[in-house]
């Protein structure tokens, strides 16, 4: 057990001695049953079938479809390619409305295909697309909407579905954060035309690297299966334009192993989330985002909003304090997509239309969670944050010196 922080001069920005010897990262991979994983890999090697829709991929897709309660799951090499293929399969063109408060791959998947991402502001409470703002951005060139279930908290699914149906737009969801979550008792995966999952190593549920498309549309699923394998509809029979989006057998082996441990991973995330909430309760200007305990939830992201006016310290300075302690907190999503290239050059005034997004990019940070951390780490992390928030004036000269500021 790490000793409690008792004095301000014990903070590493003052003393130079970090609380943790080893860096605590956001999104450190969860590893399930190693013996089960290695057994699957040994079987794969014995079969000499490493890719091209092998038995492990087929089993993984079937088990995912059952877990998500959807008709079709198509596994991919990563979620970005899954997004690109789904966008193309849906026939999106012209302009598509997306949040700027998301990982840049959501926008890149459109721009890569010469579709204009139209950045929409978010609801400050949910951090997801604000349906009222979506409605205002629709033009004759708009072909679709991509909602992102940020932090795994579902979008305003009913409102976005109503807008899409009334305005004859395609609706899909980037569910990279939302594997294992539900909305209205229904698992995320079956909403909109398609939903896209990420199984990257930093996600709580990983396949080393990978992603998937989930849909209840059989015709769309057939098209996506063709597109992810060069358009092959059988031996030497190409009937559609496609690319290489296939998941490998070794990724599926990891996916099956992760699926067997998914409840354990979620339990660790939930334990950590509630430990952080207890540890940071009542701290002015520091708000831990809430999840709906009435729904299924993966509790994957440990997100804190820092209000500098109330806390007396900025999010960025709090991140500096934590980094000095080897707590590798992350600014999410910083900056917003609209401030990244090429979008910053294409839309130089977009920040004027995204006030809530601009605020969130300056306030939000993510803290370490997952099976790599527990009470022995979370308690001291909360103490560090408390010490910084309770002594901002005393810390300011040390932060300025560490940052080279005067």
UniProtKB/TrEMBL annotation:
GO terms for molecular function: pyridoxal phosphate binding; transaminase activity. InterPro entries: DegT/StrS_aminotransferase (IPR000653), PyrdxlP-dep_Trfase (IPR015424), PyrdxlP-dep_Trfase_major (IPR015421), PyrdxlP-dep_Trfase_small (IPR015422). The active site is at 203 (proton acceptor). The modification N6-(pyridoxal phosphate)lysine is found at residue 203. Gene3D superfamilies: Aspartate Aminotransferase, domain 1, Type I PLP-dependent aspartate aminotransferase-like (Major domain). One of its GO terms (biological process) is polysaccharide biosynthetic process. Keywords: Aminotransferase, Pyridoxal phosphate, Transferase. It holds the Pfam family DegT_DnrJ_EryC1. Belongs to the DegT/DnrJ/EryC1 family. This is dTDP-4-dehydro-6-deoxyglucose aminotransferase. It comes from Candidatus Promineifilum breve. The lineage of its organism: Bacteria, Bacillati, Chloroflexota, Ardenticatenia, Candidatus Promineifilales.
């Amino acid at each position: 057990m790490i000793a409690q922080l008792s004095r301000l001069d014990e903070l590493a920005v003052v003393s130079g001695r970090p609380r943790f010897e080893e860096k605590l990262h956001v999104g450190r991979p969860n590893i399930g049953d190693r013996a089960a994983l290695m057994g699957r890999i040994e079987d794969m090697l014995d079969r000499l079938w490493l890719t091209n829709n092998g038995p492990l991929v087929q089993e993984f897709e079937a088990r995912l479809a059952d877990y998500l309660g959807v008709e079709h799951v198509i596994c991919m090499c990563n979620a970005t390619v899954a997004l690109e293929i789904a966008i193309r399969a849906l026939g999106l063109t012209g302009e598509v409305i997306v949040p700027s408060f998301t990982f840049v791959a959501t926008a890149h998947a459109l721009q890569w295909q010469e579709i204009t991402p139209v950045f929409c502001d978010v609801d400050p409470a949910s951090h997801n697309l604000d349906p009222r703002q979506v409605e205002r951005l629709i033009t004759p060139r708009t072909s679709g909407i991509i909602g992102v279930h940020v932090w795994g908290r579902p979008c305003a699914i009913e409102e976005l579905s109503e807008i899409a149906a009334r305005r004859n737009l395609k609706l899909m969801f980037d569910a990279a954060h939302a594997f294992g979550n539900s909305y209205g008792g229904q698992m995320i995966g079956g909403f909109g035309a398609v939903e896209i999952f990420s199984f990257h190593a930093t996600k709580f549920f990983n396949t080393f690297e990978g992603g998937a498309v989930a849909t209840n549309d059989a015709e769309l699923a057939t098209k996506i299966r063709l597109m992810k394998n060069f358009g092959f509809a059988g031996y030497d029979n190409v009937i559609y334009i496609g690319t290489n989006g296939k998941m490998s057998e070794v990724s599926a082996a990891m996916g099956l192993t992760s699926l067997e441990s998914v409840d354990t991973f979620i339990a660790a995330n939930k334990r950590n989330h509630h430990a952080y909430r207890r540890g940071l309760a009542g701290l002015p200007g520091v708000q831990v985002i809430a999840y709906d305990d009435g729904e299924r939830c993966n509790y994957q992201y440990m997100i804190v909003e820092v209000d500098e006016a109330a806390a007396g310290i900025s999010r960025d300075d709090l991140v500096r304090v934590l980094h000095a302690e080897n707590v590798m907190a992350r600014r999410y999503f910083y900056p917003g997509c609209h401030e990244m290239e090429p979008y910053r050059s294409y839309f130089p005034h977009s920040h004027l239309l995204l006030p809530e997004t601009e605020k969130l990019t300056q306030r939000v940070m993510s803290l370490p969670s997952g099976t790599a951390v527990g009470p022995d780490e979370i308690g001291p992390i909360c103490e560090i944050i408390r010490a910084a928030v309770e002594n901002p004036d005393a810390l300011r000269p040390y932060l300025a010196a560490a940052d080279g500021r005067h």
